[in-house]
Design a protein that fits this description.
mainly alpha; disordered N terminus; single chain; 5 helices
C-alpha cells in the first residue's frame, strides 16, 4: 500500500518540479533580469523540491515545487514593475539629455567663433568643454545602444554618466544646469 501511495505522489511531484522549472526559466530569461536579487529565491525553491524528490519525499517535493512556482510569479511581477520603472526613467532621460547636449554644443560653437572669450573663460576651458562634449555624446551613444539591445539598467547607468558629464561641462561655461540634470 505504501509503495502505491508513493508512486501516486511521484508523478504530480515530478510534474510540479518540471512546471516550476519551466516557469522559472521563462522569468529568469526575461523579467528576472531586472530583479536579479529576487531570482535566487525561485532557484532555491526548485533545488529544495528536487532534493526532497531525490529522497522520495514526494509530498514535500510537490509542496516545494508549488512554493517555487508562487515565488516565480512574484519575481515575474516584480520584474515587470521594475521594467516599467526603467522604461519611464529612460523615457525621461531621452526627453532631456539630448536637448542639454545640443545646448552645450550651441554654446561651444558660439564661443569657438568668438574673437574674445567672456570673463572667466579661457582657451583651455573651451577646449576642455569641447572634449567633455565629445565624451558626453559618446556616453549617450553607448546608452542608446544599450537601450536598443534591451539592457535598460546599463542604458540608464550610461545615461546617468552622460548626465554627470553634461553638468561637468556646463558649469565652467557658466551655463545654467537644468534641475533634472543635477
Amino acid at each position: 500500500f505504501l509503495v502505491s501511495c508513493e508512486s501516486a505522489d511521484k508523478a504530480p511531484a515530478a510534474n510540479g518540479i518540471s512546471a516550476a522549472q519551466s516557469a522559472f526559466d521563462a522569468v529568469n530569461g526575461g523579467a528576472g533580469k531586472n530583479v536579479p536579487s529576487q531570482v535566487g529565491a525561485g532557484e532555491w525553491g526548485i533545488d529544495g523540491a528536487r532534493a526532497a524528490f531525490d529522497k522520495n519525499d514526494y509530498k514535500a517535493a510537490l509542496t516545494g515545487a508549488q512554493d517555487a512556482a508562487a515565488k516565480t510569479k512574484d519575481v515575474a511581477a516584480a520584474g515587470a514593475a521594475k521594467k516599467a520603472e526603467l522604461a519611464k526613467t529612460w523615457e525621461d532621460m531621452c526627453g532631456g539629455l539630448p536637448r542639454v547636449a545640443e545646448a552645450i554644443k550651441s554654446r561651444v560653437d558660439i564661443l569657438s567663433q568668438s574673437k574674445k572669450l567672456p570673463a572667466g573663460l579661457d582657451k583651455d576651458t573651451l577646449e576642455a568643454a569641447k572634449a567633455g562634449l565629445a565624451s558626453l555624446n559618446q556616453s549617450w551613444t553607448e546608452a542608446s545602444d544599450a537601450a536598443k539591445s534591451g539592457n535598460m539598467s546599463d542604458a540608464i547607468a550610461k545615461a546617468q554618466a552622460a548626465q554627470a558629464k553634461a553638468v561637468e561641462v556646463m558649469t565652467p561655461l557658466n551655463m545654467q544646469v537644468p534641475e533634472a540634470a543635477k
